[in-house]
Amino acid sequence: MPAPESGKLYVVRFAAPEFTSLCPITSQPDFAHIVIDYIPGDWLVESKSLKLFLGSFRNHGAFHEACTMTIAGRLVELLSPVWLRIGAYWYPRGGIPIDVFWQTGAPPDGAWIPDQGVAPYRGRG
Predict the structure, then answer these.
(1) What is the CATH classification number for the domain harbouring 62?
(2) Using only C-alpha atoms, what is the Rg of the chain?
(3) Among 36, 69, 98, 117, which is least packed, fewest CB within 10 Å?
(4) Which contiguous run of DSSP H or E holds residue 64?
(5) Catalytic residue among 30, 37, 42, 115
(6) Domain range enclosing 68
(7) Which strands sit side by side in the sheet containing 83-90, from one edge to the other?
(8) Tally of domains within the chain
(9) Residue 108 maps to a domain
(10) Is 23 a residue of the active site?
């Protein structure tokens, strides 16, 4: 959908704390808390469309890095945002949490970019 304030630097955040996909080797479920921050160009993400897109990974077998970068790549391709960052905080598989981070580049001057607010994995410690 068209961005209502094109030309202004504002950040839109989507958090998907219950993201799921499948391990491509074992077909066991993988879980992540995904946070997407972006500064719109001319287009916004419609939340229901994003929800359906993220839900499509539920039966998709791919490694954590591939899932994260596929999501980021599709959003950049479709939206041409001024700036986009994704943080994928994956829950442990085999006892090792894997977090994947990517952004299109440095955020523009004057944009307020808050911390994503997801604590690092601490296990039982």
Answers:
(1) 3.30.1130.10
(2) 15
(3) 117
(4) helix 64-79
(5) 30
(6) 12-103
(7) 12-22, 29-39, 83-90, 99-103
(8) 1
(9) no
(10) yes
